[in-house]
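Hi, here's the filled form for the chain we discussed.

Project: internal
Contact: R.S.
Residues: 460
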Amino acid sequence: MISGEGYFKYQPINLFTDAIRLVRLLKGDQGEQIRCELFETFLDQIEGVPYEALSYTWGDSPDEYEVLINGRKVLVKENLYMALLALRQRGRDSVLWIDAICIDQSNDREKGHQVGQMRLIYECAKQVVIWLGPSNRGIDHLMDLAGRWDHRTRQRPGADRAQGWIDSWIWLTTDVTSYRRKETWWGEKQNLETLLLKFGTSEASDHRDSIYALLGIASDARVSNTLCPNYHVSLGHAICHTISFLLFDETYQPSARPLPENMDFPTFLRILPKLPDYILGWALQTHVDATAAALLPEAGDIKTLYDLKDITLVPARSPVSWIISSKVDFNRTFGAILEWEDANFLIGNDEIMQAVQSRRLHLLKHIIRHPSAKPNNLTVDKSGRLLSYAAMSGDRDLFWRVARIVTSGNHADLEESIRQIIARSKIIDRLTNKSVRRSSLHGIRTLWATTCALHKVLID
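And the returned structure, exactly as it came back:
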């Protein structure tokens, strides 16, 4: 907002209460300047001050128009100005709640407080006015039929057909989705992830709004204080706070459980359906072990499942935590992971099995590259399995890395363990077709020869 002589200046409101501002749109004839009065009230006293909540798109037009608030000048965006012209009445004043006017947009602390009350603000309104933009075909008809979306209108047959219009506009969808309609998408689960996937692509100028305005209606976020509007943080940090809530139900603490802070909003929406897998992959690639550990099964689950009595458990630590610890026996730990990832007998669904196989190779690739992952007296059998999985990955760099780890253990039986890889071609049978299998076997034989040579050089 422009400051200076003649321009309106906000007075602070009490952010420790449910205080809000309302704007009185003064009556006037066509052609007269828009005049308003801004005043403070409280949601718990709102019954004595009936008001309408305006829903509209902020738009991206650079044009601004002057209105008067409490006798002082304010510049508003074109779409809001058009809405005010359309809503102004000749014979009486109107009391409205309008985000761009009732919230001091230059005060991030106030903005976070008010956005946190968004759901109640819309629920307490006697009506919600949906401004779809200047007159054109289709919109005229919709405005004639349902320009005032009051409680009775929402219950009429076919009312939710207007949802298709609303999905394309924002300041966000809180105004529509707060209403308790029966036969709409409202029957779906309304958690934050679902709402972000449905409405996150709306064209908000500040993508933090795309998250925060949904908190009041998300079934999980509205009953938790873990994720709250905070306009003091960047968009990247706001996304991390959201990820931390979705995955761990905890407030984001970068020092305790880091997350990718440079993520943009389109990327966040793209990876949202597979958020745990994406963050796990990122954590393993960047060696953010605390985050990776939180996304893998607890160590106790593996020990119980396989009755691994010889593995010493560390409370609340996952297998990744063991792998990266210099005090832990790499052989036993990696063996536990291989057993867990190879749990064929637990999985009857082919698609799930393929996902497990893929995850196994994915984990192997990143775990084995971790700078502190060092083998401790690997057995021949475990060495063979390591090389087998590395060969199946089709990643030459990974195979060489594994080969170096294996040969550093001074295994005299390395050649025999690699021969066992070729003999166990049934593993490849399950994963590939014949042509790919022949290619894979050829690749393994080639790598076997070079690995043997490497082994001889290192041993000698």
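Let me know if anything looks off before we file it.
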